[in-house]
Write a structure and sequence with these properties.
The complex is a heterodimer. Chain A is α/β, with parallel strands linked by helices. Chain A has a domain at 4-89 and 156-233: Rossmann fold (3-Layer(aba) Sandwich), CATH 3.40.50.300. In chain A, 38% of the residues lie in helices and 26% in strands. In chain A, the strands form two sheets. In chain A, strands 6-7-8-3-9-10 form a six-stranded mixed β-sheet, with helices on both faces. In chain A, helix 3 packs parallel to helix 6. The chains are: A alpha/beta, B mainly alpha. Chain A binds chain B through residues 51, 53, 72-74, 77-78, 82-83, 85, 88-94, 98, 101-103, 105-106, 108, 148, 152, and chain B through 165, 168-169, 171-172, 174-176, 178-186, 288. Residues 13, 16, 19, 37, 39-45 of chain A line the site of adenosine-5'-diphosphate.
Chain lengths: 236, 288
Amino acid sequence: MSFLRVEDVVAGYGAHDEILKQVGISVEPGEIVSILGPNGAGKSTLLKTIAGLVAPRSGTVEFIGGSIAGLRPREVSRRGVVFVPQENNIFPSLTIEENLEIGGHLAKAEYREHLAKVYDRMPDLAARRRLPGGALSGGQRQLLAMAMALMVGPRLMLLDEPTAGLSPTAADDLFGMVSAIRHDGVAIAMVEQNALRSLMVSDRAYILVDGRNARSGAARELAQDADIRRIFLGEA
Amino acid sequence: MEPVNDIAQLVVNGLMSGAILAVPAIAFSLIFAVLQVSNFSVAAHIALGAYAAYVVNTVLGLPIVAAVAIAFVAAGVVGVASDHLALKPLRRHGPITVAIASMALNLVLENMLRFGFGNTVQALNIPVYRDWVLGGLHIAPQQFYNFLIAAAVMVALFCLLAFTSIGKAMRAVADNPVLADIKGIDPEFISRLAVFIGMGLAGIGGVLIALDAAIEPTVGFRVILPIFAAAVLGGLGNVAGAVAGALLVGVAEELSLLVLPVAYRSAIGFFAIIIALLFFPRGILGKR
Ligand SMILES: Nc1ncnc2c1ncn2[C@@H]1O[C@H](COP(=O)(O)OP(=O)(O)O)[C@@H](O)[C@H]1O
Ligand SMILES: [Mg+2]
């Protein structure tokens, strides 16, 4: 039994109902899994399908043995699978602390404990906790989005391009944070454009092309693969 | 009366009437913030609140506080039911469709009131006090009490939005309903709650207006323009802005009496909307 198991999933949006033509991935407890591929391959659609924002037309989406296909987003989150979208992933008019409070909406009993942990890990957020979320820089915004997800004590985090638009140092910080979160036993599936650096922190990776699985394997091996270096890293 | 005092008196009157407008204006803005639609049936819910107050106060002989509470609940319940039946099915066709449908809904609700209560103008059973005179300014005690009720209602709403878990959830849905859903909040439930509170507040606005004027089915429709103007001035969806907008419109309406015949008073609402759209497209407080 897999932790997260996605198999033969077909999904899309309204008239474009076959964006994912046939996709399968799995994530084991405590793993970091990268999902890579060209723009428009369906990576975000895959995360949205797991998160309950897109209902699959067919296929399997299971978490710890139970189907989560077609559940509402809040029901998926309640099972411990928390999605952090690429954009619009914080509440700009709420203060940072209010954002964290909403983040912990599904784990109210552990609010104090989770808040202390998050502030401990991200002291920048603690210092700015009375500011509106909209006042944060891109890197801090992304940290806040992850911190909100941590407020429920998730078992699996789905991150969509967490380093998009960040400076190299902010991206480094963020990858460091991802490793630290995994260290606490949280599994992570992340979509990244920053392929090589993402592979460096990942255990395994999947490559999607045009709504289908193209390659998959150990991150270290994929990072060495000549084909992959050529396609994703622009090497000759 | 000397002119300076005259202006001060008009400003005081304007603040008093503006505070009453502010209650339905924040209702309009709250509903807009959470559902992203303009619901003009606020007007009929004002009338509904006024009639609820009439039944509770004049017919049953209960005090005004009871009228306020019952008007809130009655208008809130009718608001949720009418939204569910008439507007929610149209939401996927976009905000303009819903706004137009809300005007049709408003006519239906007003005519139901007319059917139930007739066209005869009604009034609440309240004592008439003599004006207080403070430093040359006249203040009608009833107007002042209305001002206090309006202020108390607004403080209660702000506390709800700022300090309670459900209020924060409401602001979260207003910001981003999809993200709120991911965080465990049911946006549909929050939308219904916003409509309940919003239309309930419109009902309270109706009681306040009824304390000051006659009750008839179009009592809300006659003030919907300045209410909409107040909400637009404040920046649609900005609840604090709606209060500022309402006070501004109230004062401007009174001051217009200095230069315009009273018949043109309602032009102030139009004028305020144009000013807002031209110079403060995001509201006089600048942001949301
Ligand atoms: N809401 C949507 N409605 C219709 N088509 C969409 C929507 N979102 C994405 N798409 C389309 O789905 C395809 C895959 O998009 P996406 O999953 O975002 O790709 P990726 O994240 O791999 O860049 C693209 O062709 C995109 O245009
Ligand atoms: Mg994407």
